[in-house]
């Protein structure tokens, strides 16, 4: 594949999604698009790119964009963040929330494992949360990923990757052929939407906890600033934001500050006159 073809694909991805395909990540192109080449009869990637440039096949363009998106995820990814949420923000909300309602937004949820992990953690302590209404919303730019998340069906490898055996036995049904489906009990606790993080937040629009892990690192500075503005728009005044281990809000935005009580979490910055939401050149 020529370097010009790489640049065109990277530009296409950033223009349509806001995500950057940096030089360090361009090794993914070949593996991500191999099946598309085979399906459409292209001999090599330069032929595919030449077809995309004509703009005559928008469905193919969308298929290529979907393939280039990074949907890496697994159940209880990193584990410690889930323990932090249960012992920190959720425990605080349990003490102070008189209406017994909590809204959680998982932005960039991919195929749903993070959302379901959080739901399983809450369901595993059912007595503690009896009488509470806990709404968990997962969003992702990839419509294909969201369809898989809604289905709640995973391969043997995906289920075993990061999922404790006790959770697998309790909350999954084996379908045969190496497929497992998450229980209706857990699926009723969550909902999924195909939505870009740089769009308006999903309903209900004000969330007590937002997880946005390993999403912002793929954005340029301008798009990242816009994403933080959207997260700020969607978080409750006393809400908590969790980013990925390699991400930070410090020096990136004035909308959030470090949570003094929980290292690794962020809270909305003290109220200031409403600033205009920054614009970014994303289609």
From TrEMBL:
Domain of life: Bacteria
Keywords: Methyltransferase, Transferase
One record GO biological process: methylation
CheR-type methyltransferase domain mapped to chain residues: 1-256
GO molecular function, one term: S-adenosylmethionine-dependent methyltransferase activity
SMART domains, alphabetized: MeTrc
Transmembrane segments: none
PROSITE patterns noted in UniProt: CHER
Name assigned to this protein: Protein-glutamate O-methyltransferase CheR
